[in-house]
């Protein structure tokens, strides 16, 4: 079949069976223990959530449905033969667990295209926001405005049976994914191009249409770049719009997705102060000055990973192929040689290597998307595929509301004393 929903439905029974077996046969097995340090330290590393679509390994980086990023670059169908993978193929993989054929990926393109129209009221809400509203705030606002059309919220109101939750959640998720390029482009045009809209081109795929509707006279490979770049709220039965908007509010924090914009600002700061080709010695001083100023070096470090982020490596490979002489790329490459040593010398940074945000901005600059405050929106659009696929699975499997327990300092001290 080239119909994603049909393929997804085929995958449901086996997955339900596996979860039932896991609970029945291993329900009492211990996955880990929680230390006081973890409880006061942001819950790092506590294995406490079922998440089927991806797995992050500290050493190796992320795998989607068991495949690493280089493996997916090789195996997923491309926008052009041999080109970067289509996000539509990724969505198929995340939902069904199977690598799609080119026809199946194109089937998803067609299905999304039919749902892609952004309602007029959402455009009006965006247009009404004061100029200068951060693009991430605009994204959250637009998604919440779309929520009035939620099929899950409507079905829940009408008393839908639990076992049927998955279907309106699936429909909402596809509607939202389909509309995100139009929304992101509207935010871009409103914020930077005086508001005039560009209509979608029905011959283009999902990511290419985003590039097209942004219309920032982009270089030929920019749509491919958008391909490369590419939640616990849902457990309370908040519909996909509410859940995704909540996730986006989190992504908008500077230690998370906003690092995208912060990195570029920081690298521009380096260029301004030290010129196009600074020496390593100058860069070392600059990095130390950032640290001594009580700031982080954006684009380096990771909460879980302990190696260079494979997404960084993937973007670096792209830059090596398409813009090896670009000054900003050369600068980022030298920083790769300089920064980790210094972060190691602080003695506290657990991962001194670059993450995806250290690189993505440079590529966007090269392709003419120079407005760094917009970058996290692109990050958020690509994230939608992952989080919404998992959201569909979570509701399909009937996972309950998440309820991690919080403790006061007194409660922890009492617990320690009594053990
Ligand atoms: N520059 C300076 N200090 C850093 C640092 C960096 N790049 N990375 C970590 N540290 C510090 C950190 O602030 C902490 O200091 P204190 O003990 O004084 O609070 C110490 O090193 C130990 O931190 P950690 O255990 O190595 O990292 P965390 O798990 O606490 O935090 C990050 C992880 C990503 C928030 C952190 O590395 C950071 O702030 N990096 C810069 C911002 C960034 O690039 N974020 C994007 C992450 C990206 F992958 C994404 O999610 N979008």
Automatic annotation (TrEMBL):
Cellular compartments per GO CC: mitochondrial matrix
Keywords: Transferase
GO molecular function: acyltransferase activity, acyl groups converted into alkyl on transfer
Presence of the UniProt keyword Transferase in the record: yes
Gene Ontology biological process terms in this record: carbohydrate metabolic process; tricarboxylic acid cycle
Residues that span the membrane, as ranges: none
Protein family membership: Belongs to the citrate synthase family.
Name of the molecule in the record: Citrate synthase
Parent sequence residues shown: 27 to 445 of 704
């Amino acid at each position: 079949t080239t119909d994603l929903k049909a393929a997804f439905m085929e995958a449901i029974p086996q997955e339900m069976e596996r979860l039932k077996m896991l609970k029945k046969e291993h329900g009492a097995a211990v996955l880990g223990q929680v230390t006081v340090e973890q409880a006061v330290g942001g819950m790092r590393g506590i294995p406490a959530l079922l998440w089927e679509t991806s797995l992050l390994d500290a050493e190796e980086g992320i795998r989607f449905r068991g495949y690493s990023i280089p493996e997916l670059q090789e195996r997923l169908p491309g926008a052009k033969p041999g080109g970067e993978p289509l996000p539509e193929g990724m969505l198929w993989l995340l939902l069904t667990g199977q690598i799609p054929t080119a026809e199946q990926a194109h089937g998803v393109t067609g299905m999304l295209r039919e749902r892609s129209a952004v309602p007029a009221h959402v455009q009006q809400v965006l247009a009404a926001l004061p100029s200068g509203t951060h693009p991430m705030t605009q994204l959250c606002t637009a998604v919440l405005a779309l929520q009035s059309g939620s099929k899950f919220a409507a079905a829940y109101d009408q008393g839908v049976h639990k076992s049927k939750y998955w279907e309106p959640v699936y429909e909402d998720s596809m509607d939202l994914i389909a509309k995100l390029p139009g929304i992101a482009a509207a935010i871009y045009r409103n914020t930077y191009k005086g508001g005039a809209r560009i209509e979608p081109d029905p011959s283009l795929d999902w990511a290419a249409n985003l590039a097209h509707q942004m219309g920032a006279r982009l270089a030929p490979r920019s749509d491919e770049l958008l391909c490369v770049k590419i939640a616990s709220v849902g457990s309370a039965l908040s519909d996909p719009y509410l859940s995704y908007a909540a996730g986006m509010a989190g992504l908008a924090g500077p230690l998370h997705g906003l690092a995208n914009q912060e990195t570029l600002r920081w690298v521009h700061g380096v260029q301004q102060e030290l010129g196009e080709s600074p020496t390593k010695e100058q860069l070392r001083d600059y990095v130390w000055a950032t640290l001594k100023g009580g700031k982080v070096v954006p684009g380096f470090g990771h909460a879980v990973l302990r190696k260079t982020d494979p997404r960084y490596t993937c973007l670096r490979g792209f830059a090596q192929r398409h813009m090896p002489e670009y000054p900003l790329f050369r600068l980022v490459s030298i920083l790769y040689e300089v920064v980790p040593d210094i972060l190691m010398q602080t003695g506290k940074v657990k991962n001194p290597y670059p993450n995806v945000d250290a690189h993505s901005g440079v590529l966007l600059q090269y392709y003419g998307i120079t407005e760094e405050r917009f970058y996290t929106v692109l990050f958020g659009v690509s994230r939608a595929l992952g989080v919404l696929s998992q959201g569909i699975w979570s509701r399909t499997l009937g996972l309950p509301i998440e309820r991690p327990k919080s403790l006061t300092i007194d409660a922890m001290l009492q617990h320690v004393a009594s053990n």
